[in-house]
Specification:
Number of domains: 1
Number of strands: 2
CATH architecture: Orthogonal Bundle
CATH class: Mainly Alpha
Strand content: 5-15%
Oligomer: single chain
Strand order of the largest sheet: 1-2
Number of helices: 5
CATH superfamily: lambda repressor-like DNA-binding domains
Length: 95
């Protein structure tokens, strides 16, 4: 039983993103909720509820959101003493 709990926690922490991170990520890439909803397959209403912390999303929903944002160039920074955050991924220059 304790192994299941440990694995469960590890899985949740791996893709655990906060509402503030989602809003900040959208702002970094200049996306509206409509844009993120279209890219992730998550409804606008659900996205609004997640961003305002009115609901705790399923892991599959968080995965869809983070995948869409990461594909668009956002990197999620985990809690590391300075708090969780987001930044643009470093892309190699194209010449």
């Amino acid at each position: 039983m304790s192994l299941f709990v440990t694995l469960s926690r590890r899985n949740v922490m791996k893709k655990d993103i906060r509402p503030e991170q989602i809003r900040a990520a959208r702002a970094l890439i200049d996306w509206t909720r409509d844009d993120l909803a279209a890219a992730s397959g998550v409804t606008i209403r659900t996205l609004a509820r997640i961003e305002s912390a009115q609901t705790i999303p399923r892991q599959t929903t968080l995965t869809a959101l983070s995948s869409a944002l990461e594909t668009a160039g956002v990197e999620f920074i985990p809690e590391n003493g300075g708090g969780p955050g987001v930044r643009l991924t470093r892309r190699s220059s194209q010449t």
